[in-house]
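Hi R.,

Here's the chain you asked about this morning:
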Amino acid sequence: MELILWRHAEAEDGAPDNARQLTAKGEKQAAKMADFLHVRLPHDVRILVSPAKRAQQTAQALTKHYITEPGIAPGASPETILKAAGWPDGEGCVLIVGHQPALGEVAALLMTGQPHYWSIKKGAVWWFACRASKGGCQVGLRLVITPDFL
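And here is the predicted structure, written out as tokens:
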């Protein structure tokens, strides 16, 4: 199984939190990352997106074919996000478009076994793979990239 964490791009400040929209910079970040992902994602990728407006707009830069997943809204736990993705027992590739601090905690949990606070930059992607082994799942970090490197 592969799991891709994509933090929403830069968004406006304000309230209510779920209504915050991408800034002009955020729209550019999302478009750059979407172009990068478009040629690399498997055709059968399952895309799960937070219901927050900024996450929806980030995903829409890539496709209109995604699932809005309330379980990955702001404030979600890393365990809830992994359960929504089906990690590690699922098949194929799942792309999660979500928020800090949960995505950073997921990355830390996958890499260290503990949900530490790790910062994922706005618009960045962390791509993980799980390879079955005798002891369960061998987690590999395939890619980390931010929009400013594209």
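One quick note: Helices lie at 24-38, 53-60, 78-85, 102-112.

Cheers,
M.
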